[in-house]
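User: I'm new to structure prediction. If I give you an amino acid sequence, what do you actually give back? Let's try with this one:
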Amino acid sequence: MTAVIMKGNIPMEMKKINISAKRQITIPQKFFTMLGFGTEAECMVRGNELVIRPLKENASGEFAEQILSDLIAQGYSGEELLTRFKAAQKEVRPAVEKMLTEAQLVAESQTEYATYEDIFGTEEKE
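Assistant: Good question. You get back a string of structure tokens that encode the predicted 3D arrangement of the chain. For your 126 residues, that looks like this:
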């Protein structure tokens, strides 16, 4: 039986599940279907919560057009373009995760931060 609780303005469904002696769990069918799980999931600790969510196969797809445009501008085509594109896509997620980690450290005042101008300079007016 699932229970619906409110966390702020967000309704949350909750269901008690068993953990086997091998530390295995079964995702309830309703949640599995609702969230679009496939054959893999990602698991993380967020505060004191364990978060299990569907693995997004192409998490870097948002940048596909920019990556392709840049590689084509560099003169790549055919199989070499495909090889370079796949390599560049694999670099997107780790780069974003690093940025998020750095942002968290800045938010916790554990490290210095750089401004947009520090990184890209100021735009010169003509």
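You can read the tokens as a compact description of the fold. Here is one thing that stands out. The two ends are 67 Å apart (CA to CA).
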